[in-house]
Amino acid sequence: MARVKRGVTSHAKHKKVISEAKGYRGRRKNTIKVARQAVEKAGQYAYRDRKAKKRTFRALWIQRINAGSRALGLNYGNFMHGLSLAGIEVDRKVLSDLAINEPQAFEALVEQAKAALAAK
Which residues of the chain have pLDDT under 50? Predict the structure, then answer.
């Protein structure tokens, strides 16, 4: 039986890893052993930070909503509680956008939340 030479497949695998390591510094970009470690670690960071990105954006939205509602005389917790009592279901991303770009609409929501809290 003929001998199988694996140069083509291993070269293709190496090429794939090296192309993923493009832009790295030092041996991380051109030495397969080091590049493979760097690419694997980069994938771990990417996976972790896709989750962290969602957390940081939610925190940013909450800070913006808090700042907007405090300017109108209601803190974040009471504002969100008032919205739930009023039966208004708007997510934090939209509320944050309203607080920045549509202050009149946000003020109307704050007033509805205040009315719902007062009626409680």
Answer: none
